Amino acid sequence: MAHSSRPRLLVLTSTFPRWADDTEPAFVLELTRRLADRFQVHVLAPHAPGAASLENLAGLTVHRFRYAPEGWQTLTYEGGILARLQARPGRLALVPLFLLAEAWAIRRLLRRHRFAAIHSHWIIPQTLALRLATLGMRNPPPAICTSHGGDLFGLQGRFLAAVKRWALRRCTGLTVVSRAMVPAARTLAPHLEPRIIPMGTDLRDTFTPAPQIPRDPHRILFVGRLVEKKGVHTLLNAVARLLPRYPQLHLDLVGQGPDEATLRARSESPDLAGKVSFLGGIPHHRLPDHYRRAAVTVFPSTDQEGFGLVLVEAMGCGCPVIVSDLPAIQDIAPNDTFALRAPPGDADALAQALEQTLQNPAQAQQRAKKALGHVRERFGWENVSKEYGELLIKMAANEPRGK
């Protein structure tokens, strides 16, 4: 489609790569670049030290707004807003500056360009900033909000619920990334019927099995942010319980976040010393090497999640997995056919699931093979981006504008 004939789409997000080969989660980038054949895409994301204020990244025009002097821009990235606020509550002072700066940047872009639609990721802060930006504006573009879970489940209380309801009044459509989110979404936005469209991943070229690479039968893998809700403390305790019987075990932790210092201190205890490696953030394209070599990847989250995208990536690489028994996991691993489960926060049960996997590698590989077929059918970017693209095109062409 010719560039000039494509309608413009504005994407709002607070999670986005800061530069090429950044280790920040790239799912918004990956979805959005696959919409570029239908739209001229502009992305608005927070600025960070070292990032460009305006650039072309993967064919997208990326704008980054500043909300504080560069050295003070510490609210986003490397763990996410909620985790960074929990790590340093003093950062709460940055929140109103962030919202006002984002709202101002949105309003400026809406005045500069004619957008056919807006795709806002997360209710707070993006959709709230959008509502602020369009106050008093005549005929703003229709907008869809995608809630990823943390904004829905992690911001509780009467006041914040009222703020989220007010923000969502601006939207024409609402999507959630798992069935477990639907009841809460309906409560917040009774005027919208939430549609379930997950995030996707590249299961055709990137996250694929490599049977020629041998798995290390003693290597356990975790991939994710090093924040409390990811349950890494539970995983460390489970591994410590197994080491007396399986002294060759080794745990690799891929990711970064505000809990890293605490986790390092735990890993240096006598029952774990020398058995845990902190690999830091790893570029997205290098993650398959780790999934392909591990005996098992563990996802020990301890609270409500929106959607476990890294779980899909591990399954796409044919890696056996163990998950916490949470509602959001049902969409990806609806039963024990695809993954073993353990109650959130239960180190003993997690150790038992790990031992079952390590003792029965053939059974684990059978589960992994079935899981691979399941995720390829549902969570490849080809299907996911098609659903989002059709929804946005329809909304831009036919749907009434938000209030």
Automatic annotation (TrEMBL):
Protein name: Glycosyltransferase involved in cell wall bisynthesis
Keyword Lyase: no
One of the Pfam families matching this protein, by short name: Glyco_transf_4
A GO MF term: glycosyltransferase activity
InterPro entries assigned: Glyco_trans_1, Glyco_trans_4-like_N
Every Glycosyl transferase family domain range: 209-370
Record keywords, A-Z: Glycosyltransferase, Transferase
Coiled coil: none
GO biological process: one example: carbohydrate derivative metabolic process
